[in-house]
Amino acid sequence: MMFGMRVRGGLFAALVMFAVPVAATLAAVAVSAPAVAQTVDSITVEGNRRVEVETIRSYFHAGPGGRLSQVEVDDGLKALIETGLFQDVHIDQRGGRVVVVVVENPVIGRVAFEGNKKVKDEQLTAEVQSKPRGTFSRPMVQSDAQRIAEIYRHSGRYDVRVNPQIIEQPNNRIDLIFVVDEGVKTGVRSIEFVGNSAYSASRLRDVIKTRESNILSFLGGNDVYDPDRVEADRDLLRRFYLKNGYADVQVVAALTEYDPEKKGFLVTFKIEEGQQYRVSSVNFQSTISTLDPNSLSSYSQVRVGSLYNAEALEKSVEQMQIEASRRGYAFAIVRPRGDRNFEDHTVSLTFAIDEGPRTYIERINVRGNTRTRDYVIRREFDISEGDAYNRALVDRAERRLKNLDFFKTVKITTEPGSSSDRVILIVDLEEKSTGDFSVSGGYSTTDGALAEVSVSERNLLGRGLFAKASVTYGQYARGYSLSFVEPYLLDYRVALGLDFYQRQQLSNSYISYGTKTLGFSPRLGFQLREDLSLQLRYSIYQQEITLPSTLANCNMNTSNSLLAFNPSPAWVAANGAAAANALGATDASANGLWCYSDGEASLPVRKELASGQTLTSALGYTLNYNTLDNNKNPNDGLLIDFKQDFAGVGGDVSYIKTVIDAKYYTPLVSDIVSVIHGQAGILNKLGSNELRMLDHFQMGPNLVRGFAPNGIGPRDINPYGTQDAIGGTKYWGVSAELQMPFWFLPKEVGLKGAVYADAGGLYDYQGPTSWAATGEVNTAGCVKPTQNPPSPGTCLGLQYDDSKVVRTSVGVGLIWQSPFGPLRFDYAIPLTKGAYDRTQEFRFGGGTTF
Description:
Blueprint: H1 11-19, H2 22-30, E1 44-46, H3 53-57, H4 70-82, E2 86-94, E3 97-104, E4 107-114, H5 121-127, H6 138-154, E5 161-169, E6 173-181, E7 187-194, H7 201-207, H8 227-243, E8 250-259, E9 264-272, E10 278-286, H9 310-326, E11 332-341, E12 346-355, E13 360-367, H10 374-378, H11 391-403, E14 407-416, E15 422-431, E16 435-444, E17 448-460, E18 465-474, E19 477-486, E20 494-505, E21 514-529, E22 532-546, H12 569-582, H13 603-611, E23 614-626, E24 637-647, E25 655-667, E26 673-685, E27 715-716, E28 730-741, E29 751-763, E30 800-801, E31 807-818, E32 821-832, E33 842-849
Parallel strand pairs: 1-3, 4-6, 7-9, 10-12, 13-15
Antiparallel strand pairs: 2-3, 5-6, 8-9, 11-12, 14-15, 16-17, 16-33, 17-18, 18-19, 19-20, 20-21, 21-22, 22-23, 23-24, 24-25, 25-26, 26-28, 27-30, 28-29, 29-31, 31-32, 32-33
């Protein structure tokens, strides 16, 4: 950094401003008269323009007798210099009098910035202490230049140069200009680890936030060298090892070195792993006579035989301490103690419960929330003023505030209160933007091209409310939705959500019909535990089928009396001429199919079309269990969703639908992660209303990869119709997958490969199979044919296949956590399939927000 001067007038005056050294002034005083006999009032002041004479005299304090000594004159001189109001101060002795000669610092007219393109003027103005109408101070300007440089360094520009310059103005005023040479961005060229044997470097790079520079770095910022982030990475590495049994781990240092040739930093983490420990025993002790320590054992997440896990240990301490507080032991403190056995590599854990100091919370002071209301922050605390101080509850509140995602930083500290048994909680916050405007795009082999525009706000009006409006338009899907969430209904930790939506699904190569849905759904969410949540919901929606006229023109002539008659192709083949005459046609078509000659939608589809709009009213709930280490890119943990919906609370349909979906992630060797996925569902009829085809499960690659959308399960096998998938009431599926990074690619590229095997089945169609007719012909229930195509007269209703074949497939996949959003490519080969299933070996899907 350089400190220079640009002179546009008054060259001599500008040079004098920085030329008079303070040391020379002090030297001159040192050779002055050995004693001064004047009083403070007799001091003469010269050179002052803005600062009053009495203000300058006030820095000189007389000793006993009211007279000034040489020491007191020297002290006054130093005090004047330290004010920063003057660029020069010296004292003259004239005829026994003390004369204080001052040269005042100029007044700053304006502060401006030049050359700054990456950092806005507003941000720099907030950081510098030199302000318009303030006094110019050379040390302060130097400090401001350092602050500006530090801002750029935190954004990765270590070549920044800041050159303060002044422009003289009349009446001892100046303009202060900070000229910034931003330089180029300084990235992290390599991240290395020393001492790691249990985990590879690529696995550890997943743990930390800092990333190596690559061709896609311009879309992110974590490749920029930030010393604070590197220091935080040390703690992330330490916690990772402690979570996986390495109780003695030490991340000794994070060494950084700038490489001029590579024009970037080389970061090296030095690790001492130690041994991996397992838990040999878990004991509980209490010095509180009325508290049975074993009664808290169920709140421990540490199990005998498991790997030592510092994170589980912390959660156990928190849960046990909170439970003790609920039982009336507000000051109880749980302290874990571990005794290592270095030979067996085991650790014996003991949770000691003691009576802590009786300390109360005097006040909770919240600072830094310029927009968010105080009550939004305070409601995240399970304690308030006057309650017993409980560190576990304070830590939980800090974690909740961070999870709100309203703030850049959250830090809760304590200060002594008005007495020894009182503490003051200080909540320091730094707010961030919580509004989002996004334009999303994606493409998949199922839905085609898709675009979405949405506006959302996570902290509406500073009250912690969530609101979102979105519009979707795509090749086969269109619609809009409005969502609103009140996270604290009536000041209870119960989330109220309201969703209003309209969706339109168009016909495509996988289904012959389209659907229109208009619905409203209120819901209530309860966080039962940190890993367990419950949602209650009510859904009411109106749905109807749309179908091209060419697929629904069989016997739709309003002039004939057999309007409800929908003949099967087998019936038409056997009775073509008679049917033609009966229905008012001159003759049967050449192939004997008459109205089926141009194709016809399946009977359940046409029956849904004839029914018009259908209203569904349903109550439901979802239990969610989540222990994943990362919701976006999990490597370890379990995720289970259990859902049930009960339709028939009014409306036109009634059923009970039950679905369970579970995924288990576990890391294996060499950064390979295994994923076990199981799912199942069942649909049961309630009351006398028959099940609609639209309420049935439709399955394809979401159950077994390698099959087309709606490609699995019961299907209309009319060889002359659209052969629509009609769905099933029962399904199951299991999948085993191995995910692994590509060792020859940088980790930051975000590419992983996958190999997998899937198996599953969908069966038991229970929708309409016949359509009652009027007039001369009466259709009976359909008996599934044994021939394809069926022989004449075999079936007068729906002909469908519902075999319980187990569908299986194997395949490979490419997973890319790209800057454009998550993308996945799959190529799967079906091994076993039903006679009428439809396959699709390649599948692609993904999207982004930009």
